[in-house]
Specification:
The complex is a heterodimer of chains A (252) and B (643).
Chain A: E1 3-9, E2 18-24, H1 33-47, E3 69-70, E4 73-74, E5 96-100, E6 109-111, E7 114-115, H2 118-125, H3 147-157, H4 164-168, H5 175-186, H6 195-209, H7 218-222, H8 230-248
Parallel strand pairs in A: 1-5
Antiparallel strand pairs in A: 1-2, 3-4, 3-5, 6-7
Helix pairs in contact in A: 2-6, 3-5, 5-6, 5-8, 6-8
Chain B: E1 2-3, H1 20-27, H2 33-36, E2 40-44, H3 48-60, E3 63-67, E4 85-86, H4 98-108, H5 115-135, E5 150-151, E6 158-161, H6 167-185, E7 188-191, E8 194-202, E9 205-213, E10 219-223, E11 226-229, H7 250-257, E12 262-263, E13 268-274, E14 297-301, E15 318-319, H8 321-325, H9 335-347, E16 359-362, H10 364-370, H11 372-390, E17 399-408, E18 411-412, E19 425-427, H12 445-465, H13 479-498, H14 504-518, H15 525-545, H16 557-581, H17 605-608, E20 610-615, E21 624-629
Parallel strand pairs in B: 1-21, 2-3, 2-11, 3-7, 11-19
Antiparallel strand pairs in B: 4-6, 5-6, 8-9, 9-10, 12-18, 12-20, 13-17, 14-15, 14-16, 16-17, 20-21
Classes of the chains: A alpha+beta (252), B alpha+beta (643).
Amino acid sequence: MNLSLKIWRQASPDAPGGFKTYEARNVSPEASFLEMLDELNERLNSEGEEPIAFDHDCREGICGMCGVMINGNPHGPQDGTATCQLHMRKFSDGDSITIEPWRATALPVIRDLVVDRTAFDRIIEAGGYISVNTGAAPDANIIAIPKEAAEASMDAASCIGCAACVAACPNSAANLFAAAKISHLSLLPQGQPERWSRVVAMVETMEEYFGSCTNHGECETACPKNISIDFIAMMNRDFIKAQFKNFVRIGQ
Amino acid sequence: MTETNTTLQARIPEGPIKDHWDTHKFKTRLVNPANKRKYKIIIIGTGLAGASAAATLGELGYEVDVFTFHDSARRAHSISAQGGINAAKNYPNDGDSIFRLFYDTVKGGDFRSRESNVYRLAQVSNEIIDQATAQGVPFAREYGGLLDNRSFGGAQVSRTFYSRGQTGQQLLLGAYQALARQIEAGTVKFHSRAEMLDVVMKDGRAVGVVIRDLITGEITPHSAHAVVLATGGYSNVYFLSTNAMACNATAAWRAHRRGAYFANPCFTQIHPTCIPASDDFQSKLTLMSESLRNDGRIWVPLRADDDRAPNDIPEDERDYYLERQYPAFGNLVPRDVASRSAMRMLDENKGVGPLKNGVYLDFSSAIDRLGKARIEERYGNLFEMYERITDEDPYTVPMRIYPAPHYTMGGLWVDYNLMTTVPGLYALGEANFSDHGANRLGASALMQGLADGYFVIPYTIGEYLSDWLNTDPVSTDDPVFSEVVDEVNTRTERFLAIDGQRSVDDFHRELGKIMIEHVGLARDREGLQRAVQEIKAVREEFWRDLKILGTSDSLNQSLERAGRVADFLEIAELMAVDALNREESCGGHFRLEHQTEDGEARRDDENYAYVAAWEWKGENWPQTLHKEPLKFEYVPLSQRSYK
């Protein structure tokens, strides 16, 4: 198939950026979206134009490195699919495709389609863990965890940290990302001792960098792992509860 | 090729094997808690091994600097590991033990690993499960709330713990979170988008590294008392592999060029269950977890060139060849055996799919037996991934699979302390060679990465560090640093200056074709000799005709890849040389000249029961072979049989 690609080019964080249109000829429907970009880059390189920079790595939808806006949709048109897993058979001959980096103040462009997502790491560093030193753990089967709780925790833990949720949000909020990690840990018995301090620390750090959630739900639609916004509700509930719990310091 | 008889000091403890690790821990010198902060340690890589080591050494109080070329410590390719992690917990009460895990791993590795290291790995395996659970890793559970296990290839017990098909992701996030906690605590300094391009030596020991900032292009020296490499394997030498696009051998190879011996480079694993390639533009191959072999049955049509759709082929016209050939282990034979069997089916023109390059992995009988919901719960994300790539529904049409390069058992030679032949330089995880011999069993890579990082290096690094108490790391003003910075700068600029015609990917693909053809699933002398010549030719062409645009002072992904491919072009030759030297078949190394009558690998224990450790002698000089003899006192040498 033949496609017209309108792609964001930006040389550096401070340089002005702009769209540039490229014609892609004879694209195979079996190619993945990123393989289509690989082919384009090979051509640009041979024609003497610098290849388009984009982040990617595992190409299996799990590392969270990839992700671009495709016709205004984070990760493109297919539900529950990261950019690397999207295949060109989802497009038609003659299509015009607009490809942009994630757009959010907290995710500044580094070059072309590559953005800086390190603000996510700041949220995790603020408390997205269980404080247990290596070597101090009891036998793994000492606590029985209801299968349902483990499964729900795993649903939340599936987040790949790609930042599509932020890109999709009209407020550039990171609530789905933060809520996924908070819920992953708060749904497990091991996560209880730090449950209330964790939610406050992580939410406050999140708000230093990102916008506020107004329940649009765009994040859930964009999420390549279909993480539910129910987790945001759980985070909000815990955050409110924590105001009282932490105030009186009664632990659990 | 030249050989020496220099003895490699493996530092294997004395006494019965079950006491080795305890004895060693007791004899190893300790660093007292107040002194730990006086030591600076550099860690390269934030996969399972690197992140777990950084977190643990930080917790102990060492001053740690950790570098990754990714934007975050949550991206490394450990994250793609699907099936699970082994441990000798024996929760299912099916006869497992530390000794059995040790035994299976040594046997599965076809008797080319070091017994003592493997025994330690089996010993600490249980602590890894405890540690990960305490961190909140959501392992799969039974309805009673206790941990669930499943089976993996090469074992007759269920000892694999898992989180759906995302075990690597969850274990890596556990280690990443532990690391994030130390970054917050200030014990670990984290450097993202920072690629290590060389090791700095002084007086024969490692004193630091040179790092390129991938965003600004700045090349800077960093010094420390010790350097730990946890930088993964080199399967991307094949271009098409299951590895992530950025996986590379540069850190290990640069260390090799500075004096670290490289062990068993020809031991590579071609994983049997990957999605077959669909066309020439393919950029990588996708693994379908080995855990699928628990419930999937592998078959091909009984007669050659059968073009019928799989569901039109009646039961009695199918050949479930693994169940037929290996009744004891069936579909769960080790990876090397499964891969070679698939290759033979294709050789007999029984390949399936549009390009005739696959075999079927069929879930219909498991779905009949257990119901679709149970299969979905176990493998849902894998089935979804398969559907995304092939546009076929594996619940109704059998999957097509074929072997693809996946893991490299070879790596930097290390002693029992995980130190390379360069004092002060360590290698962990896939980057070292020690635990998997000539073939790694499934669900053992996660185990080894975390064993090395959480439970081995925190104990063993003290032995070396104790010698340097109250000394500062060598100053980065020392000429040894500026010399290496200059070398790295020169090399980086050289890529840009070639100004030829061909892209870096073009060279990488060409190298990959040579490697898969001659140094892949089956190897022979003539092919390997040809490979050595062809690799040399591509390398010369690379340095003459490479075309890299842009500059070195900004994000330049082609330039990053150029450095990695340049190193692949060197390691590739050593792989072929090592494969030529090893006149036997063992594990993933299958020499056509050395096979039994029924096509199984024929080892030569009399002449090749050794680790081949290669010493760099300079460009254009053959590398020197050093041999570490392997002794098998606890798992008697035998021909592997999975029948």
